[in-house]
Amino acid sequence: MTTILYMVIPCYNEELVIDETSKRLKEKYSQLIENEKISPKSRIVYVNDGSKDKTWEKIQEKHHEDSVFSGINLSRNRGHQNALLAGLMTVKELCDCAISMDADLQDDIDTIDAMIEKFEDEACDIVYGVRDNRDTDTVFKRRTAGAFYKTMELLGSQSIPNHADFRLMSRRALEGLSQFPEENLFLRGLVPLVGYKSAVVYYKRGERFAGESKYPLKRMLSFAVDGITSTSATPMRFILWIGFFFFIFAIIGAIYIVGRHFIGAPDVSGWASTMIAIIGFGGLNLLAVGIIGEYIGKIFIEVKHRPRYIIEEFINQEENKG
Ligand code: UDP
Ligand code: MG
């Protein structure tokens, strides 16, 4: 029995890259099937995340040309993480393992062999693709990404540095992932919590093949904030400690001031220090309220428990024609 592999590829306005990605993946699949690494029942599943261009038409076209290509059409744009989850949850009962990958060929397709090997020969349930260079990113993206992973680490999050969403998961790991009900999805912080035996494979991240990045600065920043606040409560704990520190400080200050009064020292001046205290504490309060607000907002969204995605259509040829 050879492995049934499903690739899951979220696509948002990717009409320019689907042809090339399909061609490259098809070659890889033919080769893997020939070497009996994967079963001919394996599929390549594109998840159309409410694209505004011809992406879905392109996916349907691919599916009709060749049954190795399948497609999931979401009812609207839900963002990369939700689209990915929609794909993984849809295929989890059909496959032995699934590999998630971006549509733009930035993840190296040749790494798939190493991932399958870890899955088959070493019985790993999760294989993380980790990039060993960031040469193709701008200096800015490299710096900000570096700072982000450092922060995540300091905050005690379990995420794997330089691993994006290129990974293999076994069927039971997907089953595990399906038990996490959260709305604030940050898959790379969540998957390590699933557990099981895991491994890392390294690859060189290439340039986007065509089209442009769907993560402009604004989206990148909010993704980072979401990533931190949905996997770690440390920023709130941090506020608690700052508050505690200033409280002790204030008590000591109060004792000092009252003491001075009884000694009879002149207590006229002190305007500057008063102002500094007011402004300083004002700022600190706003910061604290802001961070707490971020978490309360998250709770608000979790409590409503809205569906994370809605699937409009799933086109898949399950039986094996090959
Ligand atoms: N993507 C998506 N929904 C979105 C935004 C992006 O499904 O709302 C997909 C996109 O089509 C691509 C992947 O997520 O396959 C990663 O996006 P992109 O390559 O633009 O991000 P970058 O590599 O620049 O971080
Ligand atoms: Mg990309």
From TrEMBL:
The keyword Transit peptide does not apply. The keyword Glycosyltransferase applies. This is Glycosyltransferase. It is a multi-pass membrane protein. Residues 8-175 form the Glycosyltransferase 2-like domain. GO terms for cellular component: plasma membrane. Keywords: Glycosyltransferase, Membrane, Transferase, Transmembrane, Transmembrane helix. Pfam families: Glycos_transf_2 (PF00535). The chain crosses the membrane at residues 238-259, 271-296. InterPro entries: Glyco_trans_2-like (IPR001173), Glycosyltransferase_2 (IPR050256), Nucleotide-diphossugar_trans (IPR029044).
